[in-house]
Specification:
Elements (H helix, E strand, L loop, with lengths): L14 E6 L7 E10 L6 E8 L9 E5 L6 H6 L7 H12 L2 H10 L3 H5 L6 H25 L11 E6 L18 E6 L4 E2 L3 H4 L5 H16 L3 E3 L7 E7 L2 E6 L5 E3 L6 H11 L1 H13 L9 H9 L13
Antiparallel strand pairs: 1-2, 1-5, 2-3, 3-4, 4-6, 5-6, 7-9, 8-11, 9-10
Length: 320
């Protein structure tokens, strides 16, 4: 984004205002941005420290904001024009006049015209569509964290709070804020390295145990009725705790499906077999580490392969 006005407000050293939700409803806080995780893809993630909040004592946290304006991969995937203040101004007026709510209602009702006419959508309708997708991603991630409440802080980060980032430029926009303001979450900040960097950050004799622990976490989560369509090595943080002792955490759950969305066990198992979440870690690590890691496929996935006639084995996932 070239012009000064279209640059993201999420920069190290900057400060943004957030409104806390849930058990902290009504509280506002200033979040000082210490570090950003770029490029922004389907959300904007950064390390922050809060002031004037019951959560300030938590220290550094990860703030993940589902902001359609600067989610570059989302906009590219949906062929949306680069965001500009003018687009936003028009969209706010569209939302205030009820256009965003009615358009979103069509999307929620599965009205095919709302998505089939993407080529004829104006910028405001496109922004409403992007906001809808961001809201769905936010809802999914929150549902995953709530489902996995008992393993927060152990295998996944702890979820501290849900938030909203107010960006309305008109006081009249308050009633339209669900269609304008980006939602987000505050998470435990896990320091460490991505699983993609294991060869540079951990001794070779630890690769096998780290990889096996990553696969175990995938299966623990999968056993809770969650199917993750975005299992990649970059979604694991490995934390060194002492000499040659490492702890693994899994992050990023916006692209998940749930067992209750499927008609029966057969449909669910078929989708699990095709997605092959376990292999998305195991096969890729085995290929990348060239003898430093051996993938032992679990009995659960061997059974899925057999049940769903994966004669040549499951598809080998591409890493990202």
């Amino acid at each position: 984004m070239d012009s000064e006005g279209t640059k993201s407000p999420y920069v190290a050293g900057g400060t943004i205002s957030i409104q806390l939700r849930g058990s902290f409803e009504g509280q506002t806080a200033e979040a000082t941005i210490l570090k950003v995780f770029e490029p922004f893809t389907l959300s904007c993630a950064m390390v922050v420290r809060l002031s004037c909040s019951d959560l300030a004592s938590k220290g550094e946290m990860v703030l993940k904001i589902f902001d359609r304006r600067f989610a570059s991969q989302l906009r590219e995937d949906q062929d949306a024009s680069p965001w500009t203040p003018d687009i936003e101004k028009e969209y706010h007026q569209f939302a205030i006049e009820g256009g965003a709510s009615s358009f979103t209602a069509k999307l929620n009702s599965k009205d095919e015209t709302a998505t089939e006419q993407a080529d004829t959508q104006n910028d405001s309708q496109t922004e409403a569509f992007l906001q809808h997708l961001m809201s769905e991603s936010y809802d999914t991630e929150v549902e995953v964290y709530n489902t996995l409440k008992d393993i927060q802080g152990e295998y996944i980060p702890q979820l501290f709070a849900n938030i909203t980032t107010p960006i309305a430029i008109d006081t009249q926009a308050s009633t339209a804020s669900p269609y304008i303001d980006p939602p987000g979450i505050l998470l435990q900040y896990i320091t460490g390295f991505e699983l993609t960097d294991i060869a540079d950050c951990a001794p070779k004799e630890c690769w096998q145990s780290i990889g096996e622990e990553s696969i175990r976490i995938v299966n623990v989560i999968g056993d809770r009725g969650i199917l993750n369509e975005d299992v990649k090595r970059r979604n694991f943080i490995v934390q060194k705790q002492e000499e040659d002792v490492y702890k693994v955490f899994m992050i990023d759950f916006a692209l998940c499906l749930f067992r209750n969305e499927f008609e029966d066990d057969a449909e669910w198992d078929q989708r699990k077999a095709m997605q092959d979440e376990e292999g998305a870690v195991g096969y890729v690590m085995q290929g990348k580490l060239k003898g430093g890691f051996t993938y032992h496929r679990s009995a659960r996935y061997e059974q899925l392969d057999e049940d769903w006639n994966m004669e040549d084995g499951p598809k080998r996932p591409r890493d990202g």
